[in-house]
Known about the structure:
With 345 residues, this protein is an alpha/beta fold. It has helices at residues 13-25, 36-42, 61-70, 86-94, 108-177, 185-199, 204-216, 226-229, 237-243, 246-254, 261-268, 290-305, 316-326, 333-344, and strands at 5-9, 29-33, 49-53, 77-81, 99-102. The protein folds into 2 domains: 5-132, Response regulator (Rossmann fold), CATH 3.40.50; 178-344, Hypothetical protein af1432 (Orthogonal Bundle), CATH 1.10.3210. 59% of the residues lie in helices and 7% in strands. It has a 5-stranded parallel β-sheet, with helices on both faces. Helix 1 links the parallel strand 1 (5-9) and strand 2 (29-33). Helix 6 runs antiparallel to helix 7 and helix 6 crosses helix 12 (290-305). It is rod-shaped, with a radius of gyration of 43 Å. Fe (ii) ion binds next to loops.
Amino acid sequence: MASSKIxxxxxxxxxxxxxxxxLEMFGHEVIAVDCGQAALDVLDPFFDVIILDxxxxxxDGFETIAAINERQLDIPxxxxxxxGSMEYAVKAINLGAYDFLSKxxxxxxxxxxxxxxxxxxxxxxxxxxxYKKNLEVEIQAKTKELAEKNILLKxxxxxxETSTVNTILTLQTALEEKDPYTAGHTMRVTxxxxxxxxxxxxxxxxxxxxxxxxxxxxxGKLVIDVSCIQKPGPLSDEEWVLVKKHPEIGQNIIxxxxxxxxxxxxxxxxHERIDGNGYPDGLLGDQLDILEKxxxxxxxxxxxTSKRSYKINKNKDxxxxxxxxCAGTQFDQEVVKAFIDILKD
Length: 345
Ligand SMILES: [Fe+2]
């Protein structure tokens, strides 16, 4: 066993010197003091065992162990007890003493065994503390690592979502660009919608959804016969039936992308009217989401002011007039007001 450091407090000089000699003979390093206060003064976490006499001037052994306990060093304390002091022994145990050494020391083997056992106890305590500390450090490191991985995952997931939306957007832009009448429609609608939403102080998360919904709102037209969309002159009834399907088709196209669920609903409802005369569901104003109301306004305004194959476009003032006229029936009044405000800015 490696050398251990032992503290002994006893006011009896002869006992003290005898114990120091014995302990040094067993290979320990010993610090000896003559009272409880002196023991507390020299006490540090590097002691392995403390031996306390009970009767000492000033602080007695019980007061000293109470003060030692407060420091929470977990160093085993052994009490020196004279023969027949059972009452003292019980009190010492209750105060957290580890063991007793009988005074005077008669059996060196027992004395040695008791000291060794206390030293072993101290070693287990220290090992346990080290293990707990290591565990804490390890847990902290793992928690930090997990948090970092989580951030990375979120970023990957975000990047993946963005590139998926961009892929669909590319297809849609390609479709639009084939027709000079619809070129740039999606970009303009998205810009109008976002400005209106900001004017209405919608939260950032809502803006993200609105932006994606606006970018993809006409994606359903990808599967409608283009010749019908690009046709000069008004559409026939059958062609209208076909065109009116694009909001539902749009929602269905992006349905497999679960992160776009809300966007899908907004896309489905971008041709609804607050008076219930829109399509495909004929919803009323209070059943419509604010994002749907905004997208409807932005989309309709752009349709009015850009050249459409089957309609003559309006100038800005006429279109604003038309928006005002339809506020309260086709469009939400508050949204129209915000929209006209941003147009005038
Ligand atoms: Fe549309």
